[in-house]
Each structure stands twice: as structure tokens, then as C-alpha cells.
């Protein structure tokens, strides 16, 4: 009888043991945003780019597999890599080494950055966002999140936007998030003008994302800037950090700050 009682007790207690799982540690924002790996120049832009608020809006968690499209010089790599290095995975879908002179210089600088801080970036997996016919940014259906920061206009100019959205969709798990931050034009702007200025309308991006299967989940004004009129002759590059403008306009452009930006959260349908 005692053996039966003990067996029943063990079966009653077993479910409680099985469903008891460790609580995921909080993201280490202090290290990501204030660690010695970050340059002062990049950290100074946090006030305009709001990395913590942006990534929290997208729903970033430390155990996620995250892909960043076209990471450029690695501004967001400085933030994402330390956040994900312990329990998550970070893919940087950069330029092809065979994509021409600019592509090689940009990729080379990025790889040099990773190599100089191996304790921070050693776990980063670099993949290629090109050529279009051979893009695999991460194993299909494995990513929890794919991120695009201020790159949509570049893909429009290269006529690769549709393909880029498709590979982002393919990389994501069902229910995965596609997060977009982009210089914002008024709705209805001509696509050729978008390419020339870097400002893209929300309606254009939403339509393009929906065309490959994404659903719009939420919008945020965390990166909005009401001072930006978006009507500069040389486009967004007249504003910081590029400041491609005549000396007499520099002070006025600095007063505007970085561009007005949309922040859109899409999801890949599914559970």
C-alpha cells in the first residue's frame, strides 16, 4: 500500500516538475548600448535612432534567431550582437564579395570590425544578400525576426526589393516578425522620386510587403521627426549623419536632426 501511495504521489507531482522551466534572463541593454565596443560616434546617434525602444517594439527576445538585412557599417550590429550572443543567433546578411568595388569595400570594412572585437562579434554569422538568384540569408523557416534599417530605397534602386522581401519571408518561421525602419515620404510619392531622395512612403512599403505574404501588425512613431520636411534637393543625405549640403545650410540641417522615419512591424502568417 505504501508503494502505491508513493507512486500516486510521484505521478501527481510529475506535471509540476515537467512544466517548471527557467525564466529567460533579461536583455543586457547596458552592455549593448554602453559597452566599450561601441564607438562614441555611433552611440551619439541613439538619441535619434532609439535602438532599445525600436527593438522592444519589434518584440526582440534574447533567445531569438535574428537576421539583419544590409547591416552596412554595423551600427545595429553593435547593439544586436551582444544582446543575442549568449542565447540567441544573429545573422548579418551583407554584400556579396563579388558584387563590385563598393560592395567589396563595405563588406571588407564590416568583416574587419567583426574581427577586431571577437569577444563581442565572434558568434555573428555573415551571409550574403546577393546576387538575387542565389540569396540565402538564413536557413529557411528558422528566423524569429528579420530587420531592415533604412535600406528599402537602396533595394528599389537596384530593382531587388521584391526578391529581398521574398527571402526575408522565406527565412522567417510562421509567426515571425519582419521589422522595417525607413525614411518616410508622404503617401503617393512617385517611386522614382523615392529612389532619388531615399524617402519611401508607408503605403508603398506596406503594399510591397503584403504582395509577398506579410501582414501589417503594428506601427510606431518612435523614430518620427516632425522637423523633417523631406523635400531636400539631395534627399535624405542632406541631413545628419551624411550632411551632403552647402555650408550655409549645415546649421539648419543639423537643427532638423536625422530623418523622419516610419517603424513598421509585419508578421509572417501562421502559429
Topology:
Layout (H helix, E strand, L loop, with lengths): L1 H17 L10 H6 L5 H4 L2 H4 L1 H8 L6 E5 L7 H8 L4 E6 L6 H16 L1 H4 L3 E4 L14 E7 L2 H6 L3 H11 E14 L5 H7 L2 E2 H10 L3 E6 L26 H10 L4 E7 L4
Parallel strand pairs: 1-2, 1-4, 2-3, 4-5, 5-6
Antiparallel strand pairs: 5-8, 7-8
Given the helix and strand composition, which structural class is it?
alpha/beta
Strand content: 15-25%
Shape: globular
Instruction: State the total count of DSSP E strands.
Output: 8
Count of helical stretches: 13
**What are the segments in which pLDDT stays under 50 over at least 5 consecutive residues?**
1-24
The end-to-end distance, rounded to whole angstroms, is 46 Å
How large, in whole angstroms, is the Cα Rg? 22 Å
Report the sheet with the most strands, covering strand number, pairing sense and barrel closure. Answer: 8 strands, mixed
**Share in helix:** 40-55%
